[in-house]
Amino acid sequence: MVQALTLNNGIEMPEIGYGVFRVEEGSALEDAIVTAIKLGYRSIDTAAIYGNEASVGNGIKKAIEQGLVTREELYVTSKVWNDGLTFDETIAAYEESLEKMGLEYLDLYLIHWPGDNKYLEPWRALESLYKEKRVKSIGVSNFQVHHLEDLRENAEITPVVNQIELHPKLIQEEVRAYCQEHNILVEAWSPLMNAELLSDETVGKIASTHGKSAAQVILRWDLQQGIITIPKSMTPSRMEENISIYDFTLSEEELAQLNALHEGRRIGPNPDEFDF
């Protein structure tokens, strides 16, 4: 069973989720959602910009109809693409995501990118949704320390999560330290670095020691540091592999070896440079 971490509002969030970035809308994704739930995933992460919320929702509906899970047992995340959105437009974007997914609420709604200081008005909208109990939790994605500090000075509610690009080549020490200080959980997107890390020699040696795959070692590295992780795969065997990481533990030396792979290298945009 996937374990959970407690958010700063007291709600529990599974520490491993199923990501669907760059997966096209359609029956294949619907089937993958059902398979993920069968395998034990309870957290599903999507976003408006992914263009696949309807298929995610259809997959969830199928899994519920098959008696695999109840809605209350799932943790569903989506994100608003806040390109200059007003308060009202952000509320409308949330309602549109709910309609596409066929859901009455989301467990977590995130601001997808800070952009060029475009997040304060959308954040006020998220706060309103949260106060009205229309969403269970609210958070951010791709926020640097100065974005988080600005939000802290201007907002009423602290984000529960900051979802960022994070893997052994980009360990994000400064952002993680700030989040820990302010009780914001860190969630890793692209934890396997688009599979690039799976051929890394250091990762391979550690994997061989434990009789595990490279992916399992990296995802275990996440969990042992209190990082929520959302690997993506459409292959059932790999989906199962990614969630089967509770029967071994990395040593402090192995954790240090993985941290030493840090190069500050991103595969996604730099939040300080990316303005949609």
Automatic annotation (TrEMBL):
It comes from the Bacteria. The lineage of its organism: Bacteria, Bacillati, Bacillota, Bacilli, Bacillales. Belongs to the aldo/keto reductase family. Substrate binds at H112. Keywords: NADP, Oxidoreductase. Residues 27-261 form the NADP-dependent oxidoreductase domain. Coiled coil: none annotated. The record marks K79 as: Lowers pKa of active site Tyr. This is Glyoxal reductase. One of its GO terms (molecular function) is oxidoreductase activity, acting on the CH-OH group of donors, NAD or NADP as acceptor. SUPFAM superfamilies: NAD(P)-linked oxidoreductase (SSF51430). InterPro entries: AKR, Aldo/ket_reductase_CS, NAD(P)_OxRdtase_dom_sf, NADP_OxRdtase_dom. The active site is at Y50 (proton donor).
